[in-house]
Amino acid sequence: MNICIIGAGYVGLTTAAVLAELGHEVHCIDHDEQKIRLLNDGKIPFYEPGLEELITKNSNYLTFSGRWDYIKRASVIVICVGTPPRPDGSTDLRYIEAVLDRLAATVESYKTIVTKSTVPPGTNEWMRAELIGKGTAPHLFRIVSNPEFLREGSAVYDMFHPDKIVVGLEPDDDRSLAVIQGMYAGINAPYVTTSLTGAELIKYAANAFLAMKISFINEMARICDAFAVDVNDIAHGIGLDPRISPHFLQAGLGYGGSCFPKDIKALEHAARSRQVEPHLLKAVQTVNTTQLDLCLQKLHEQLAPLAGKKIAVLGIAFKPNTDDTRFSPAEALIRRLSESGCTVAAYDPKATLSEPLTRVTQVQSVHEAIQGADGLVIATDWDEFRTLDWGQVKAAMNGTLVFDGRNCLDRHAVEQSGLRYMGVGRP
Length: 427
Ligand code: UDX
Known about the structure:
By secondary structure, this protein is of the alpha/beta class. It has 17 helices and 14 strands.
């Protein structure tokens, strides 16, 4: 197949690389000229394990440019542009609108237009109406909603091994499913077919459910602290029930990233736009936003006064195996510590602080971060932090407090070295 991907972000690039690996001819368009130059030099503009190698491996079938006329050659167009949040939680569709303008000006022969960008319920139907309104003949295209469920840090693996492929179709569309099956030929996963809006809502429901599990276990962590019980025991105990499953039950600083915070707000906004009050979605967000307050409170109780203390923070990214700091709880914690008057030495294997902060220095190693620290905080659960030599950590620090903000450490190993361990719901 000849496929054109619009948008060279982590979803667009991962999709492009994997489709090229599956044997298709793929062209990826992005308006960012600098990004295109980088990609044509075989580099990617962010850290995603395995992606650069896959792009280089398929460079004969995978090209990049800012040229929209490539759309003419393709039979399938995959839209992967960003859908950022507006301040009121609604979704800014300006990049989708720009794509529709280009498509309306370019499409002359039949195209299957696949939306991968996460868009609010009703958007794909609106897109069809918009394209027709802009003069594209209805018989020249079909719209398919095909949301992605890729996790940053394991996007390439997830694209090759999805647990499902969701395909939302127009009511009278009897040809697009076969097109999508041809596009993903070689990937083994069950197909879920539904309406355009059904597919949009599956994406939001999946993210909301996962965020709900995180907020649930974070609320349990608060209860565990009050009753002197280890929340990891609770997660293990309930996770063995297949109706619950052990995944996404890791208590900590709360969820972040480019998807969960934005998508849950967008779903809340969409529900309200149809006069549905989303009680549970509100509670999920309240637990998440107050989680950081509680963690700071814990640090305050152990180190009071916080002002003037030197804190080593390990982790800046919103989760391990990425350099992404969007809505990162780790970076938010660093900001709050700085506002409390702490001096912070922050270290992350890949991520960089997104803005300069008073009394905060980003250092190049764990060793540098912990020198003379009064307290150590694990803010992102990178593997590198799980296996530290705690004897050496103790020797380098001034104080003894280790706050495991991701409940990822072996507490006995930490305590055996004479350090004090504090987790989230692990008294
Ligand atoms: C998520 C969805 O998993 C993915 O399917 C969707 O396509 C995009 O959004 P991602 O944002 O990459 O992916 O990260 P994910 O691994 O889901 O983690 C999200 C946040 O939740 C991170 O901040 C992570 O640290 C936190 N988290 C995750 C927890 O606090 N506890 C957990 O048990 C799991």
